[in-house]
Amino acid sequence: MNIKEIKTIGIITHRGNYNYGGLLQALALQCWLQSQGFLVDIINLDKMQLSGTKVGRMVRLMLTPLDTINKLINSKKRSFVQAPPKQFLQIFSDFKTAAKMKYSPEVTADNIGDIANKYDAIIVGSDQVWCYKYARPLIFFAHWTPRYKGRTLSYAACSPDMDIPWYNKKIIAKQLKRFDEISVRDTYTMKWVESICSRKSLVVADPTLLYDFEEFCVPNKVTEPYIFAYCLGTEIVGGHYAAIKEIRKKHGNIKIIGVAIPNKSQEVEKFADEIIYDASPRDWLNLLRHSTFVYTDSFHGCMFSLKFNKQFIAYYAQQSRASRLIDIKERYSLENAVVSSVAELQEKQCLSMGIDYEIVNSLIKEHVDLSKQFLTESLCLTKE
Prior knowledge:
The chain is α/β, with parallel strands linked by helices and 384 residues long. It has 2 domains: 3-211 and 366-383, Rossmann fold; 221-353, 3-Layer(aba) Sandwich (Rossmann fold). The chain is built from 14 helices and 15 strands. The protein has helices at 20-35, 54-63, 66-77, 86-98, 112-116, 166-178, 187-197, 240-251, 281-289, 299-307, 319-331, 342-347, 350-353, 357-378, and strands at 3-4, 8-12, 39-44, 103-106, 121-124, 151-157, 181-184, 202-203, 226-230, 255-259, 274-276, 293-296, 312-315, 338-339, 382-383. Helix 8 links the parallel strand 9 (226-230) and strand 10. It starts with a strand and ends with a strand.
């Protein structure tokens, strides 16, 4: 066995073209790895087809559970919804440039294997990279041509459901067995990996917890107290107004500032006093950081609330969002922060009890230390 030192790393994760958490988690992983002396690029997927073929989508419709079918029905009701406008996408592009995020040349299904093989190691993740189980090629399972020869690991990869199409099941199992190391973001995905290929995996911290983001933090531009709202899915069971009423009982009748993704995630329009449609990732981060309270159904809304020790309520109204929120609820002692309904919020007196950050920060530190150790040990050596 020949030993080769790892110097260059390619991260393969979501594009992050208009998803705040998706982009910031990629930035965090890149920055932390760079701080350890590695040369790191994010594999540029902008030209890749991620959703699969039309036949694959039809098969998925037949095989997916009720939650996914309901989402498809709802999407038909919102058939007028379009992609975010170009000027919004440009805001994200400008942030990537300002943050000095490094990318590989744009990849396609034909050249991704060649470009990947220029790196000593490939890291798959974080975020919901393993939801593309119907896509061809299976890019987030390192199923490329030519076959990748370097060290392959996943970091905080997540699968929001157990479904795998019959025609990809053996391929995915084979590819997962080829990974040198596997780490995942939640217990649900850990069980999914074991069910597919009988491999044990480690649950690690989301990359946003590895990096402090201090270089992107600025003084607060909003002079009055406010609740920060960021909602990506459907309304909380019991209704937003009832939830906000409970929050205001604790924090006063303060303003609600919501961030919306134009044409995509505009749930905050139902209840926010002020809605921002053109927030940059830096704006989003700082609006959350300086808020009095956070109301969200976003996983990364939770992560940044934890980073900045914010009191928050996170809800899951969809099964597809439940697993990762329930996991951090149990992992970081967030019984009073993560709920499924307004009734649960009231019954458990979540707002009165609040989050004990002395306990939470200790648990997060222990988990982050474990996660950094996983990365350090996984990237020490590779086989040729």
